[in-house]
Amino acid sequence: MTKNELIEKVAKKVGLTKKAAIDAVNAVFGNIRESLSKGDKVVITGFGTFKVRTRMTRTGRNPQTGSAIKIAGHKLPGFTAGKTLKRLIK
Question: So what family is this one in (predicted)?
Fold first, then answer.
């Protein structure tokens, strides 16, 4: 499902205009994005948890030369599905 398909489904299900559905979907994703950029986690009960994960600095190998290289640590977004979502998919 694409973002546009999600917007259309929200508009039909809730009875909003397409513009109002666009604003609603963008507001939800914007708030999730904003919270993650601050380092907060976002818990949506019955769906899952979005949080920032930290990868530590580690040593890797250059596949062409085989020499050891240092891979810098960094932060990235992560998602953990909630129990209800996991049960629904099984």
Answer: Belongs to the bacterial histone-like protein family.
Per the CB < 8 A criterion, the answer to whether 43 and 37 are in contact is: no
Look at residue 52 and give its three-state secondary structure: strand
CA distance 69 to 30: 36
Phi, psi of 68 (to 5 degrees): -75, 140
Would you state the structure tokens that stand for residue 40, as one six-digit string?
């907060």
Report how many domains make up the chain: 2
Torsions phi, psi for 63 (to 5 deg): -65, -25
Q: What is the pLDDT along the chain (90 residues), one digit of tens a residue?
A: 999 999 999 999 999 999 999 999 999 999 999 999 999 999 999 999 999 999 999 999 999 999 999 999 999 999 999 999 999 998
Q: Does one domain contain both 61 and 86?
A: yes
Tell me the one-letter amino acid at 45.
Answer: T
